[in-house]
Structures are given as C-alpha cells and as structure tokens.
Amino acid sequence: MNKTEINLRFLAACATAREAGMLVRTRFLERDNVLKLKFKGPQDYLTETDGEVEQLIARRLADVFPDDAFLGEEYGGDIDDKLWVVDPIDGTADFARGVPYFCVSIAFVLRGNTEIGIVYDPMADELFTAIRGGGARLNNRPIKVSEIAKIEESVIELGWSSRVPFDGYARVHARFNELGASVKRCGSGALGLVYVAMGRQDAYCELHINAWDAAAAALIVQESGGWTNPFLTPECLQRGNEIIACTPQLRNIIEESMMLGH
Ligand code: LIP
Q1: Going by CATH, does the domain composed of 3-142 fall within 3.30.200.20?
Q2: Of 7, 118, 179, 243, which has the fewest beta carbons less than 10 angstroms from its beta carbon?
Q3: What is the average per-residue pLDDT within 151-162?
C-alpha cells in the first residue's frame, strides 16, 4: 500500500471519528435523566449508542474503502490484511452513567501492523492522531511523552476489568504504590493511553484489554516517543492482550512490576 492510500485512509478516519464523536456527544447530552442501564455481563454495559455509532463508522469506511475488512467491539467482523479495528465508545461504563470520559477509537491495521491510530474525545473536542513514522498529534499539534524517569515521580494508570482475576491487579497496584508511584484508574483504556502520549500521565498498564480498545492509542504512544509492549499480536485481534505503555525511562521497572500480575 502506498503513502497516498494510507493518507487517504487517515483523512477519512479523522472525518469519521469526528462525525461519530458528535453522534456520541449528542446521545450523551440528550440522555434521559432517569438512569436506564443494560448489561452484557458483570460490569459490562450495553448501550444502543455503541451499536448505532459502530454502524455509522462501518458504513462511512465501507463507502470509501469497500475492500477493507472491519472488526468492531459490538458486531465483530472478519480479519484481513487491510483491517479497520474500531471501538465506537471506549469508556462505555462512564457514558452509560453520565460521566463525560469516553472516546471513539479507530485503527487501521495493514498485514498485522497498525499504520493509523485515531482517538477522539467529543466532550473535550480532542482529536489524537498518528500515522506510523509520522509522529503523534493532538488537534494537529505535535505531542510527546513526559520526561519522567523516576517511578516515585510518576503517575501510572492501572486499568482493570473482570476479564482478569482481581488478585493479580492488586499485586501490581501494591507494587506500584510501594515504589512511590501515584496510581489511578479511570474507565477508558484508549484515553488513558493517549494521555501518556502527551504527558498527562506517564504510563498506562492493563493485564488484559481488547484490540479495539488499545490498537489506535498504542500507535499514538509509540509515535509520541513512548514505549509499548508488542501489543497487537495476531492472537490479540481475536483475544486481546496485556498492554504496557510508558515513558522509555520507566520501561524496565514497570515491565518488572507487571510480571507480578500473572
Ligand atoms: C473499556 C476499556 C478499559 C477496560 C474496561 C473496558 P469499553 O472498554 O477501555 O481499559 O478496563 O473494562 O473494557 O468496554 O468501555 O469499550
């Protein structure tokens, strides 16, 4: 695939992320004050908007790139050499509860490598983007990871879900605390990762996260000068993987600490 074909996909993905984000924002702001919650499973929220937004994204991308495959959180899909990996709302729990902390995540994966990463927060109007080899940007301004090298000066987000046993998460959390890190947990892996890419925090780690949550944001971290583990393995597309993303200087001590979770 040549540079022009990648650039065309980048522009289409940015426009689609913004349009999808506006739909998410509209649904969020017009939601009924009476809380109506549905669940796919324990702490796994189901909202109609997830499905509606994923269908919009799939339609827009198929209109322009009909031969590309599509894999989304809500409706799944087939895996092929040219593949869109999409989470229509990352941070669904907060979206469902009326907390404005969520985003749209769109990645383009070519023969197993993420070439384009787009994460859009419609509430903050923050569009995080990266093309492999082209750097990372927030609203088209270059971004870089922080210079934090000492764990005792770091802010680490440690994600967790009931997809993994709690005790592993607790061991890692305790270790980070012991080392003097400030540890937090929000509810969107994609936002937590892109916050690393621009220095709002120094690491995002999770023992298991799905490909559609993190594929786009992991590229944005890499292109901002951060380090990530080799997240998008062939198995990851089907089964997810562990994610570790941090400033290069923190890599060793964080990798070591995450081993406690297994
Ligand atoms: C979320 C991830 C987060 C994880 C949550 C959930 P969703 O994605 O971004 O890292 O801890 O359990 O999977 O479900 O909001 O798209």
Answers
A1: no
A2: 7
A3: 97
